[in-house]
Write a structure and sequence with these properties.
Strand content: 5-15%
Shape: globular
Number of domains: 2
CATH architecture of the largest domain: 3-Layer(aba) Sandwich
CATH class of the largest domain: Alpha Beta
Largest sheet: 7 strands, mixed
Helix content: 40-55%
Structural class: alpha/beta
CATH topology of the largest domain: Aspartate Aminotransferase, domain 2
Order of helices and strands: HEHHHEHEHEHEHEHEEHHHHEEHEEEH
Length: 375
């Protein structure tokens, strides 16, 4: 009976051209991964991690942090990350997804309200769903709409946003958000997934880069993108971290990160600190792309490593991506319902290791796409 139901659901998805499958490795030029600084493939960093873990006694963490999985290595790494992110404390998680689930499911209570940007990541929305608080979205980066929505909110108001949005590549108006939060006593939650490593001294993210970190209540940092490794952390006050240790189910009831994972996080930040020029190299690549591209209709304006072009319709965007891929560039289509219907898109990620000629060739290819969607 289960297989019959599963087959039916998969047929329905296939009929709508929404069936997903795991992609095969290819030899195309990478313009799709989140390895913005090239750290995931950096040989010197790999050697640093290997040398560090050689002295570690355990292969795994052996249990949750509250049972057998805590370690001096984990606590030292959290102290190190606190210096990077200029926070009183940090708490490690296995992924940014689980960190967002932990924060959004445990902090807001039954009589509180969560208001999140409509383009926030699925992990923010899923965390809100797990909470007993009321929850609704506000129009993307629209501070007036946020303020209007807050008038209908009850209890404590939690506002969840991202520093850079993963599908559009644009930034949140952090200074305006902080001012609004202070004026109305909002509790501000900032997901720095796509700015960790890319902004600020030692890769400390947007809040530190803009000097607003002490005015943001909860910050989430992800290490599986620009940092090239795995894991995440929540940064904030001592009380915030102690609260999560006591009340956040995604922290309490999961196996702690392995010693390898924890060691790799510190190695990645130490490596970036010694090669902070990688941030400038990436900026040069972004500038080259944008300058060569010029004005193309339906392009979402972005100064980040994420560049996006709206090509409405799942079948049309699939055809458009296939055209680009046949010319040697690994650029993927983003379909609805991942993004709202009518906003299907090409999502291009730029990296330090994309050579200038490849970027120029990609721009030429984009200008030659045989569709009225890109002009």
């Amino acid at each position: 009976m289960l297989d019959t139901w599963l087959e039916e659901k998969l047929r329905e998805r296939k009929a709508k051209s929404l069936l997903r499958s795991l992609p095969k490795p290819n030899n195309l030029i990478d313009f799709t991964s989140n390895d913005y600084l090239g750290l995931a493939r950096n040989g010197a960093l790999h050697q640093n991690i290997s040398d560090t873990i050689e002295a570690l006694a355990l292969n795994g963490s052996t249990g949750s942090r509250l049972l057998s999985g805590n370690s001096e290595l984990a606590e030292r790494t959290e102290q190190f990350l606190s210096t990077i992110f200029q926070s009183h404390s940090t708490l490690l998680f296995n992924s940014g997804y689980s960190a967002n689930l932990a924060v959004l499911s445990s902090l807001p209570q039954k009589d509180d309200t969560i208001i999140y940007d409509e383009l926030a990541h699925a992990s923010i929305k899923d965390g809100a769903r797990l909470s007993l608080a009321k929850k609704f979205s506000f129009r993307h980066n629209d501070m007036d709409d946020l303020e209007r929505k807050a008038r209908n909110a009850h209890g404590r108001i939690f506002v969840a946003v991202e520093s850079v949005y993963s599908m559009d590549g644009d930034e949140c108006p952090l200074a305006e958000l902080v001012a609004l939060a202070e004026r109305h006593n909002f509790i501000l939650i900032l997901d720095e997934a796509h700015t960790t490593g890319l902004r600020g001294p030692n890769g400390s993210g947007m809040a530190v880069h803009t000097g607003l970190h002490d005015r943001v209540d909860v910050r989430i940092y992800t290490f599986g993108k620009a940092m090239g490794v795995c894991g995440a952390c929540v940064a904030g006050s001592n009380d915030l971290i102690n609260y999560l240790v006591n009340f956040a189910r995604p922290f309490i009831y999961t196996t702690a990160p392995s010693p390898y994972q924890v060691a790799s996080i510190r190695c990645a930040f130490e490596f970036l600190g010694a090669h902070i020029e990688l941030q400038s190299v990436l900026k040069q690549k972004i500038d080259l792309f944008r300058q060569n591209l010029g004005a193309i209709e339906n392009r979402i304006e972005s100064t980040s490593a994420i560049q996006t072009f709206i090509v409405p319709g799942n079948s049309t965007i699939r055809e458009t991506a296939a055209y680009v891929q046949k010319r040697g560039f690994d650029v993927r289509p983003i379909l609805s319902p991942t993004v709202p219907a009518g906003t299907e898109r090409l999502r291009i990620c730029l990296h330090t290791y994309n050579d200038d000629q490849a970027i120029t060739d990609l721009v030429t290819c984009l200008k030659q796409i045989p569709t009225p969607a890109l002009k």
